[in-house]
Amino acid sequence: MQLNSFLKDPLAPSFELIAGQNGLNREINHVGIVDTPNFEEYLVPDQFIVTTGYLFQNHNDRLRQLIISLDKHHSSGIGIKANRHMNTIDHDIQELANQHHILMIWLLDDEPMSTTFTKINQIINATHNNELHEIVTINQQLSFINHHNTYQHLLDLSAQILDAPLMLLDSHFSALYASNALLKEREFFTSFLRTQSNIDYLNLQEKVIVTFKGKQFDILPIFSALNENKAFVAIQTPSQPLSDFQLLKRRQVINAVGLANSRTDLINETEFRNLSGFFLNIMQGDLGTEAINHYLRNINIDVQTQYAIAVLDFTTSKSIIEIRQFEILQTLTRWFINESDWPVLIFSYKQQLVLLIADVINPRIFLQNLYNFLRKQSKLEHRFTIGFSRITETIHKLNDLYEQANNALKLTSKSHPIMRFRPKSAHELLNLLPQQESRAFVEKNLGPILDNPELLQTLETYMFLHQNVTAVASAMFVHRNTINYRLKHISELLDVNLDMPDVLVDIQLAILLLN
């Protein structure tokens, strides 16, 4: 309890104040008697000293030293029995007590010292018992409401316990929930914190105080398993310093809000892992088009949205990369995406981060911003690089785009940490064409024979063997005249001259696209 509460207790005698009234917010949890010059050895924090004054009679130097020592040991103050050995306190002693915020009072002169000592102890013990009972009650209330009610109920009860309104902030300093008195202020408070407070909330580790609309708020981190996932609680700052008991109640509230927030974290993490599992199934070819579309619709993702794929990976050998480092990379990347609401999905695959970047944003600009952000984070101890696909496709083609991004990743270096896929062959180059255009080109040049395997195989072999009819006949185990007949039939169906170079180029490209 604080000295101001102690002095207001009905059991407390009417003590006369001498000096140090600005120390009334000091805690009093013990009482002791001073009767020897070596008093400093026995001083402890939150201790209130009582004395007959005999030790200090005609020894102002000792009283000065006691005041300094009480402050040094964070003790409460001193009570001197009135009209026993002392009946006045020099002005300079009073000024010293005021300077050190050490309360000085006169104890009743008509009451035995033992009685005064006992009364003070009784007040302290009764207060401790009442506080303990209240703490147990608060714990039961918070526990019950945490399991049976909403964030709104929890914060309203917490505001009642603390006698102060409060808000719950996510890791991006957005006020998600608030007690009733602050419900209408959430949007304004969020805007103020994110645009005007200049607080590095990603790396905030301890309490900060902000002033919003003329009122001060204590903002305290609520830590999760990963600090990057931490939330915050904003509590309106009280007009007077908090007592130890009030700080304990605040800690109870923060723990209860943290428990509720951890359940939300668990739900979000489960959703993330489920989505990652879905992407892994696509990568492994375990899902058909209908199954993919059904899942995407259930989680409100447009099946027609096209994505570029990027892969983030450490450049250091996997054998010496700690799992914790990969978790930090993943969590910081997710934080960055959510911070600006980028239209990007993310999952992990073979200890790589895979990003699906919607085609409404420029993938290189996004990845450069992400890279710059991650490079500033001291928690990442290893260098990483990024490769990304050249084209965009729907999620159904995730595996193909991943191969492009992974191949691009192999081209990265310290001087070029972000690379876009570069085709190394004609096949890879043709794969960059949009599927709709590829199908249209194949249909235009090969359409009439696509349903005739014999003619299609003959034309492919003819092109592969550089239009050598004899070699084609030998490879297909038929007579040369049969090949000539088939080629004539193909020319008629396609309405082309197979001797023309430009025709052969178009057919060759169509066959490559078909395969």
From TrEMBL:
Domain of life: Bacteria
Domain PucR C-terminal helix-turn-helix span(s) in chain numbering: 455-512
Coiled-coil region list: none
Stored PANTHER family: CARBOHYDRATE DIACID REGULATOR, DNA-BINDING TRANSCRIPTIONAL ACTIVATOR ADER
Gene3D superfamilies: PucR C-terminal helix-turn-helix domain (1.10.10.2840)
InterPro entries listed in its UniProt record: CdaR-like_regulators, CdaR_GGDEF, PucR_C-HTH_dom, PucR_C-HTH_sf, PucR_dom
Pfam families associated with the record: GGDEF_2 (PF17853), HTH_30 (PF13556), PucR (PF07905)
Domain CdaR GGDEF-like, first and last residues per copy: 285-411
Sequence similarity: Belongs to the CdaR family.
Residues annotated as domain Purine catabolism PurC-like: 7-123
Protein's name in the database: CdaR family transcriptional regulator
